Amino acid sequence: MDDIDPLEQALHAARALVLADLAAREVAAAEVVSMVEDAVTHRRWWVEQWPEGITYVAGLVAQDVQDALLERYGRWPLCPVCSSGDPHALDVEPELGPDPHWVCGKAGVVVAPVGGLK
Fold first, then answer.
1. Is the dihedral of CA 32, 60, 86, 79 positive or negative?
2. CB 14 within 8 A of CB 44
3. Which of 4, 47, 91, 112 is the least buried, fewest Cβ under 10 Å from its Cβ?
């Protein structure tokens, strides 16, 4: 059996992590899943141009989906830490790096790794 291409493995993992977060927050409707597929397609091209960026794909796909959701539906994922003030979305940190996490920028708290929202 042939080994799985590292690029495809990274893209499949990124897709699975983001879909898990969307499902956890109950926003994994068909049109949102299409946004994930669009982000994965875009990042496939991006990594083909810059292979060293393969470890950054999960965080970038999460950010791409977050941006697409903001344009069409609003902030996602909403911060579960801050109970007062205006609702705000979590941020992906590092913005360009391995091991991405959802972070509340206001409180400076790591909420979950990408793929680990509850």
1. positive
2. no
3. 4
Sheet holding 91-93, edge to edge: 91-93, 101-104, 109-113
β-bridge mates for residue 102, sequence order = 92, 112
d(CA 9, CA 25): 25
- CA–CA gap between residue 51 and residue 9 (Å, rounded): 13
Query: Alpha-carbon distance 93 to 63, whole Å?
Result: 10
pLDDT at residue 2 greater than cutoff 70: no
Dump pLDDT digits (tens) for 21-63.
Answer: 999 999 999 999 999 999 999 999 999 999 999 999 999 999 9
